[in-house]
Amino acid sequence: xISASLVKELRELTGAGMLDCKKALEASxxxxxxxxxxxxxxxxxxxxxxxxxxxAEGLADVKIDGNKxxxxxxxSETDFVAKNSEFKExxxxxxxxxxxxxxxxxxxVLNINVNGETINDIIVAKTAKIGEKLSFRRFxxxxxxxxxxxGSYIHMGGKIAVLITLEGANSEVAKEVAMHAAAMRxxxxxxxxxxxxxxxxxxxxxxxxxxNEGKPADKVENILVxxxxxxxxxxxxxxxxxxxxxxxxxxxxxxxxxNGSIISMIRFEVGEGIEKRTEDFASEVAKQxxxx
Length: 292
Fold this sequence. Notes:
Elements: H1 4-14, H2 18-27, H3 32-41, H4 44-48, E1 57-65, E2 68-76, H5 79-82, H6 85-99, H7 106-110, E3 113-114, E4 117-118, H8 119-130, E5 135-143, E6 148-155, E7 160-168, H9 171-184, H10 196-212, H11 220-235, H12 251-257, E8 260-269, H13 281-289
Antiparallel strand pairs: 1-2, 2-5, 3-4, 6-7, 7-8
Protein backbone atom coordinates (compact mmCIF):
# COMPACT_ATOMS: atom_id res chain seq x y z
CA UNK A 1 0.00 0.00 0.00
CA ILE A 2 1.46 3.35 -1.08
CA SER A 3 1.04 5.97 1.65
CA ALA A 4 -0.16 9.51 0.98
CA SER A 5 2.98 10.92 2.60
CA LEU A 6 5.18 8.97 0.15
CA VAL A 7 3.15 10.27 -2.80
CA LYS A 8 3.48 13.81 -1.40
CA GLU A 9 7.25 13.39 -1.02
CA LEU A 10 7.65 12.24 -4.63
CA ARG A 11 5.43 15.06 -5.86
CA GLU A 12 7.53 17.66 -4.07
CA LEU A 13 10.69 16.07 -5.43
CA THR A 14 9.63 15.86 -9.09
CA GLY A 15 6.75 18.30 -9.54
CA ALA A 16 4.67 15.54 -11.15
CA GLY A 17 0.95 15.16 -10.50
CA MET A 18 -0.40 13.14 -7.57
CA LEU A 19 -1.85 10.40 -9.78
CA ASP A 20 1.38 10.06 -11.77
CA CYS A 21 3.38 9.87 -8.52
CA LYS A 22 1.10 7.15 -7.19
CA LYS A 23 1.49 5.16 -10.42
CA ALA A 24 5.26 5.58 -10.31
CA LEU A 25 5.49 4.38 -6.71
CA GLU A 26 3.25 1.40 -7.40
CA ALA A 27 5.43 0.46 -10.39
CA SER A 28 8.56 0.84 -8.25
CA UNK A 29 7.30 -0.93 -5.09
CA UNK A 30 7.51 2.28 -3.09
CA UNK A 31 11.14 3.07 -3.96
CA UNK A 32 11.42 6.87 -4.33
CA UNK A 33 14.59 6.74 -6.41
CA UNK A 34 13.18 4.17 -8.85
CA UNK A 35 9.89 6.06 -8.98
CA UNK A 36 11.75 9.25 -9.94
CA UNK A 37 13.49 7.33 -12.73
CA UNK A 38 10.14 5.91 -13.85
CA UNK A 39 8.70 9.42 -14.09
CA UNK A 40 11.72 10.66 -16.01
CA UNK A 41 11.50 7.74 -18.43
CA UNK A 42 7.87 8.55 -19.09
CA UNK A 43 8.79 12.20 -19.64
CA UNK A 44 6.51 13.23 -16.79
CA UNK A 45 9.09 14.67 -14.40
CA UNK A 46 10.65 16.72 -17.17
CA UNK A 47 7.27 17.96 -18.34
CA UNK A 48 6.13 18.74 -14.80
CA UNK A 49 9.02 21.16 -14.27
CA UNK A 50 7.59 23.25 -17.09
CA UNK A 51 4.17 23.62 -15.47
CA UNK A 52 5.08 26.93 -13.81
CA UNK A 53 6.04 28.47 -17.13
CA UNK A 54 3.64 30.64 -19.09
CA UNK A 55 2.31 29.21 -22.33
CA ALA A 56 0.62 32.12 -24.12
CA GLU A 57 1.54 31.40 -27.74
CA GLY A 58 0.17 28.50 -29.79
CA LEU A 59 -2.59 27.83 -32.29
CA ALA A 60 -6.35 28.21 -32.55
CA ASP A 61 -8.00 26.02 -35.15
CA VAL A 62 -11.38 24.89 -36.50
CA LYS A 63 -12.50 21.61 -38.02
CA ILE A 64 -15.88 21.00 -39.62
CA ASP A 65 -17.23 17.54 -40.37
CA GLY A 66 -20.75 17.57 -41.77
CA ASN A 67 -23.07 18.99 -39.13
CA LYS A 68 -20.42 18.92 -36.39
CA UNK A 69 -17.65 21.43 -35.77
CA UNK A 70 -14.92 22.02 -33.20
CA UNK A 71 -12.87 25.11 -32.31
CA UNK A 72 -9.80 24.67 -30.09
CA UNK A 73 -6.86 26.54 -28.62
CA UNK A 74 -3.60 24.77 -27.77
CA UNK A 75 -0.78 26.79 -26.23
CA SER A 76 3.00 26.70 -26.31
CA GLU A 77 5.59 28.99 -24.75
CA THR A 78 6.93 30.37 -28.05
CA ASP A 79 5.60 31.15 -31.48
CA PHE A 80 8.51 29.13 -32.91
CA VAL A 81 7.14 25.91 -31.39
CA ALA A 82 3.61 26.80 -32.53
CA LYS A 83 4.92 26.48 -36.10
CA ASN A 84 6.57 23.12 -35.36
CA SER A 85 5.10 20.19 -37.36
CA GLU A 86 4.83 18.03 -34.19
CA PHE A 87 2.84 20.74 -32.45
CA LYS A 88 0.53 21.05 -35.46
CA GLU A 89 0.08 17.25 -35.45
CA UNK A 90 -1.01 17.47 -31.80
CA UNK A 91 -3.59 20.15 -32.65
CA UNK A 92 -4.89 18.00 -35.52
CA UNK A 93 -5.12 14.93 -33.26
CA UNK A 94 -7.11 16.91 -30.68
CA UNK A 95 -9.54 18.17 -33.32
CA UNK A 96 -10.16 14.66 -34.65
CA UNK A 97 -10.46 13.16 -31.17
CA UNK A 98 -13.05 15.73 -30.07
CA UNK A 99 -15.07 15.38 -33.29
CA UNK A 100 -15.18 11.61 -33.03
CA UNK A 101 -16.02 11.33 -29.32
CA UNK A 102 -18.82 12.44 -27.01
CA UNK A 103 -16.90 14.89 -24.83
CA UNK A 104 -18.03 17.85 -22.75
CA UNK A 105 -14.92 18.91 -20.81
CA UNK A 106 -11.15 19.08 -21.27
CA UNK A 107 -10.86 16.30 -18.68
CA UNK A 108 -13.08 14.11 -20.88
CA VAL A 109 -10.72 14.70 -23.80
CA LEU A 110 -7.55 14.10 -21.77
CA ASN A 111 -8.83 10.71 -20.63
CA ILE A 112 -9.59 9.41 -24.15
CA ASN A 113 -7.37 6.52 -25.22
CA VAL A 114 -5.74 6.76 -28.65
CA ASN A 115 -3.65 3.79 -29.78
CA GLY A 116 -2.95 2.68 -26.22
CA GLU A 117 -2.17 6.13 -24.80
CA THR A 118 -4.40 8.74 -23.23
CA ILE A 119 -4.45 12.20 -24.75
CA ASN A 120 -2.95 13.46 -21.49
CA ASP A 121 0.00 11.04 -21.86
CA ILE A 122 0.48 12.16 -25.47
CA ILE A 123 0.61 15.84 -24.42
CA VAL A 124 3.09 15.00 -21.63
CA ALA A 125 5.30 13.10 -24.09
CA LYS A 126 5.14 15.96 -26.62
CA THR A 127 6.05 18.44 -23.87
CA ALA A 128 9.11 16.38 -22.97
CA LYS A 129 10.15 15.94 -26.61
CA ILE A 130 9.59 19.51 -27.78
CA GLY A 131 11.04 21.02 -24.61
CA GLU A 132 8.32 23.59 -23.90
CA LYS A 133 5.22 23.63 -21.77
CA LEU A 134 2.23 22.68 -23.94
CA SER A 135 -1.30 23.33 -22.76
CA PHE A 136 -4.66 22.23 -24.18
CA ARG A 137 -6.51 25.33 -23.06
CA ARG A 138 -10.07 25.17 -24.38
CA PHE A 139 -12.50 23.87 -26.98
CA UNK A 140 -16.09 24.21 -28.09
CA UNK A 141 -17.95 21.57 -30.04
CA UNK A 142 -21.27 22.34 -31.67
CA UNK A 143 -23.75 20.62 -33.95
CA UNK A 144 -25.99 22.34 -36.48
CA UNK A 145 -29.18 21.34 -38.27
CA UNK A 146 -29.46 20.64 -41.98
CA UNK A 147 -31.00 24.10 -42.58
CA UNK A 148 -28.07 25.87 -40.91
CA UNK A 149 -24.64 26.72 -42.32
CA UNK A 150 -21.17 26.86 -40.81
CA GLY A 151 -18.57 29.40 -41.83
CA SER A 152 -15.01 29.38 -40.47
CA TYR A 153 -11.96 31.55 -40.79
CA ILE A 154 -8.39 31.21 -39.52
CA HIS A 155 -6.49 34.49 -39.23
CA MET A 156 -2.73 35.12 -39.02
CA GLY A 157 -1.79 31.48 -39.41
CA GLY A 158 -3.81 30.34 -36.40
CA LYS A 159 -3.66 33.33 -34.04
CA ILE A 160 -7.43 33.72 -34.35
CA ALA A 161 -10.03 31.07 -35.18
CA VAL A 162 -13.70 31.88 -35.77
CA LEU A 163 -16.72 29.66 -36.35
CA ILE A 164 -20.06 31.19 -37.31
CA THR A 165 -23.38 29.35 -37.50
CA LEU A 166 -26.17 30.85 -39.58
CA GLU A 167 -29.77 29.81 -40.01
CA GLY A 168 -30.34 29.86 -43.76
CA ALA A 169 -28.11 31.90 -46.12
CA ASN A 170 -25.10 29.77 -47.19
CA SER A 171 -21.57 28.78 -46.17
CA GLU A 172 -20.00 31.65 -48.17
CA VAL A 173 -22.04 34.25 -46.29
CA ALA A 174 -21.15 32.51 -43.03
CA LYS A 175 -17.45 32.64 -43.95
CA GLU A 176 -17.71 36.37 -44.74
CA VAL A 177 -19.19 36.94 -41.28
CA ALA A 178 -16.42 34.83 -39.72
CA MET A 179 -13.80 36.99 -41.47
CA HIS A 180 -15.52 40.10 -40.15
CA ALA A 181 -15.56 38.70 -36.60
CA ALA A 182 -11.85 37.87 -36.81
CA ALA A 183 -11.03 41.46 -37.72
CA MET A 184 -13.52 43.39 -35.58
CA ARG A 185 -13.36 41.37 -32.33
CA UNK A 186 -17.04 41.39 -31.26
CA UNK A 187 -17.59 40.12 -27.74
CA UNK A 188 -21.24 39.14 -28.21
CA UNK A 189 -23.58 38.12 -31.01
CA UNK A 190 -26.48 40.43 -30.13
CA UNK A 191 -27.27 43.22 -27.66
CA UNK A 192 -29.39 40.91 -25.49
CA UNK A 193 -26.28 38.76 -24.93
CA UNK A 194 -24.48 41.55 -23.04
CA UNK A 195 -24.70 40.68 -19.32
CA UNK A 196 -26.71 43.15 -17.24
CA UNK A 197 -23.81 43.88 -14.87
CA UNK A 198 -21.45 44.58 -17.80
CA UNK A 199 -23.96 46.95 -19.41
CA UNK A 200 -24.66 48.76 -16.13
CA UNK A 201 -20.94 49.27 -15.53
CA UNK A 202 -20.56 50.77 -19.01
CA UNK A 203 -23.59 53.02 -18.49
CA UNK A 204 -22.18 54.29 -15.19
CA UNK A 205 -18.92 55.16 -16.92
CA UNK A 206 -20.84 56.95 -19.69
CA UNK A 207 -22.87 58.94 -17.13
CA UNK A 208 -19.73 60.12 -15.37
CA UNK A 209 -18.15 61.09 -18.68
CA UNK A 210 -21.20 63.12 -19.70
CA UNK A 211 -21.38 64.92 -16.35
CA ASN A 212 -17.66 65.66 -16.48
CA GLU A 213 -18.18 67.13 -19.95
CA GLY A 214 -20.69 69.54 -18.40
CA LYS A 215 -23.86 68.00 -19.82
CA PRO A 216 -27.01 68.93 -17.83
CA ALA A 217 -27.92 66.19 -15.33
CA ASP A 218 -31.54 66.09 -16.55
CA LYS A 219 -30.40 65.46 -20.14
CA VAL A 220 -27.88 62.69 -19.38
CA GLU A 221 -30.32 59.75 -19.58
CA ASN A 222 -31.57 60.84 -23.01
CA ILE A 223 -28.03 61.23 -24.34
CA LEU A 224 -27.20 57.85 -22.81
CA VAL A 225 -29.56 56.06 -25.23
CA UNK A 226 -27.42 57.00 -28.21
CA UNK A 227 -24.19 56.13 -26.41
CA UNK A 228 -25.51 52.68 -25.46
CA UNK A 229 -26.45 52.05 -29.10
CA UNK A 230 -22.91 53.04 -30.11
CA UNK A 231 -21.57 50.64 -27.47
CA UNK A 232 -23.65 47.82 -28.98
CA UNK A 233 -22.26 48.76 -32.40
CA UNK A 234 -18.75 48.32 -31.00
CA UNK A 235 -19.15 45.02 -29.16
CA UNK A 236 -22.07 43.10 -30.75
CA UNK A 237 -21.60 41.22 -34.01
CA UNK A 238 -25.11 41.90 -35.32
CA UNK A 239 -24.81 45.65 -34.64
CA UNK A 240 -21.33 46.17 -36.06
CA UNK A 241 -20.93 47.82 -39.46
CA UNK A 242 -20.04 45.00 -41.87
CA UNK A 243 -16.42 45.43 -43.00
CA UNK A 244 -17.34 44.90 -46.66
CA UNK A 245 -20.45 47.07 -46.52
CA UNK A 246 -20.90 49.61 -49.31
CA UNK A 247 -23.62 51.62 -47.56
CA UNK A 248 -22.52 51.12 -43.95
CA UNK A 249 -24.99 48.29 -43.43
CA UNK A 250 -24.79 46.21 -40.25
CA UNK A 251 -23.67 42.58 -40.18
CA UNK A 252 -27.24 41.64 -39.24
CA UNK A 253 -28.64 43.40 -42.32
CA UNK A 254 -26.02 41.77 -44.57
CA UNK A 255 -27.02 38.32 -43.30
CA UNK A 256 -30.75 39.11 -43.45
CA UNK A 257 -30.40 40.36 -47.04
CA UNK A 258 -28.95 36.92 -47.84
CA ASN A 259 -31.97 35.17 -46.30
CA GLY A 260 -30.24 34.21 -43.07
CA SER A 261 -29.86 35.00 -39.38
CA ILE A 262 -26.93 34.62 -36.99
CA ILE A 263 -27.24 31.71 -34.56
CA SER A 264 -23.84 31.63 -32.87
CA MET A 265 -20.24 32.80 -32.91
CA ILE A 266 -17.17 31.17 -31.42
CA ARG A 267 -14.03 33.30 -31.57
CA PHE A 268 -10.76 32.12 -30.02
CA GLU A 269 -7.75 34.43 -30.01
CA VAL A 270 -4.52 32.76 -28.89
CA GLY A 271 -3.37 33.90 -25.48
CA GLU A 272 -6.31 36.20 -24.74
CA GLY A 273 -6.70 36.55 -20.99
CA ILE A 274 -3.32 34.96 -20.26
CA GLU A 275 -0.81 37.17 -18.50
CA LYS A 276 2.26 37.04 -20.71
CA ARG A 277 5.79 37.26 -19.42
CA THR A 278 7.16 40.74 -20.11
CA GLU A 279 10.63 40.28 -18.66
CA ASP A 280 13.19 41.73 -21.05
CA PHE A 281 16.17 39.85 -22.42
CA ALA A 282 18.74 41.91 -20.47
CA SER A 283 17.19 41.07 -17.09
CA GLU A 284 16.89 37.42 -18.07
CA VAL A 285 20.61 37.28 -18.85
CA ALA A 286 21.43 39.16 -15.63
CA LYS A 287 19.46 36.60 -13.62
CA GLN A 288 21.37 33.74 -15.21
CA UNK A 289 24.73 35.46 -14.53
CA UNK A 290 23.78 36.08 -10.90
CA UNK A 291 22.52 32.53 -10.51
CA UNK A 292 18.96 33.52 -9.71
